[in-house]
Write a structure and sequence with these properties.
five-stranded mixed beta sheet; two-stranded antiparallel sheet; 9 strands; binds adenosine-5'-diphosphate; histidine kinase
Length: about 270
């Protein structure tokens, strides 16, 4: 609360009292804190890979280059860290682009079943590497919705990639798609490491990760779910998550099948 005090003086200079103006700045402070936290987080996330790249490059230049095995090892670390940096910057730019509220959605009728199966196909290789079983919707059960293709693809891709990243070898991932009233629902569940109940409310925040080290190892930036939430809400949809530590996680996305025509410009 900001408080401003001023004396209340009559025309004849007689003091009659004090005027107090109370200004509730809770929201302003909250937004300011969010902004400074965000800048601090971005700086930290950028600094970590850059420090690593610089350190390994310096060591190579200082002589480690003459040992071929060390040279290879250091160069692969430099490559991996540069990749992470690239992904981080691309995701930050993407998030900032989709947050620009004046950009209308490019809505079109899309076959959601086909989209899910295509995306699953592109990451099948990752699932195979970990010997994961992928249960997918029936190809013959076409489910359509009105949405912006790229954004809907990104939602499915981020959730599926997380399911693969956070499920140990030999686990199972199940993708279901169904219609309910005027909504299309997508559920992605895994038999992975799960998320502790105390962390669940924060996982959609930018850069929030249950275990930073594990997320880093799997190439995570901590922005994937913030992007998913934003994209879902830009379609007037909702996302919910249920999880049990050590057992697995389920994300359910509910998207409206259609949008009112006059909604189209206000969405996003
Ligand atoms: P990241 O790039 O770290 O995966 P996300 O924003 O996609 O970032 O996810 C945030 C955090 O939520 C992850 O770091 C992880 O701790 C947790 N998480 C997301 N999906 C799952 C899942 N399917 N199983 C377990 N934990 C998950």
């Amino acid at each position: 609360m900001d408080v401003h005090l001023a004396p209340y003086v009559r025309e004849n200079q007689e003091r009659k009292g004090i005027i107090a103006v109370l200004h509730d700045v809770t929201e302003v402070r909250r937004l300011e804190k969010m902004r400074t936290d965000f800048v601090a987080n971005v700086s930290h996330e950028l600094k970590t890979p850059i420090t690593s790249v610089k350190g390994f490059a310096e060591t190579l230049l200082d002589g480690a280059m003459h040992d071929e095995a060390i040279c290879r090892e250091f160069l692969s670390i430099i490559y991996r860290e540069s990749e992470r940096l690239h992904r981080l910057i691309s995701e930050l730019l993407y998030l900032s682009r989709i947050e620009q509220h004046h950009i209308p959605l490019k809505l079109e009728q899309m076959n959601m079943t086909e989209a899910v199966l295509n995306i699953a196909n592109t990451i099948q290789k990752e699932a195979k590497k970990k010997n994961l079983t992928l249960n997918l919707p029936e190809q013959t059960n076409d489910i359509w919705l009105e949405g912006e293709k790229d954004r809907i693809h990104q939602i499915v891709l981020n959730l599926l990639s997380n399911a693969i990243a956070y499920t140990p070898e030999g686990g199972k991932i199940c993708v279901e798609l169904w219609e309910e009233n005027d909504q299309v629902k997508l559920s992605i569940s895994d038999t992975g490491i799960g998320i502790p109940a105390s962390e669940l409310p924060r996982i959609f925040e930018r850069f929030y990760r249950v275990e930073k080290a594990r997320s880093r190892r799997s190439g995570g930036t901590g922005l994937g779910l913030a992007i998913v939430k934003h994209l879902t809400e830009s379609h007037n949809g909702k996302i919910e998550v249920k999880s049990e530590e050590g057992k697995g996680t389920t994300f359910i996305v509910a998207l409206p099948k259609t949008h009112e025509t006059n909604d189209k410009t206000s969405l996003s």
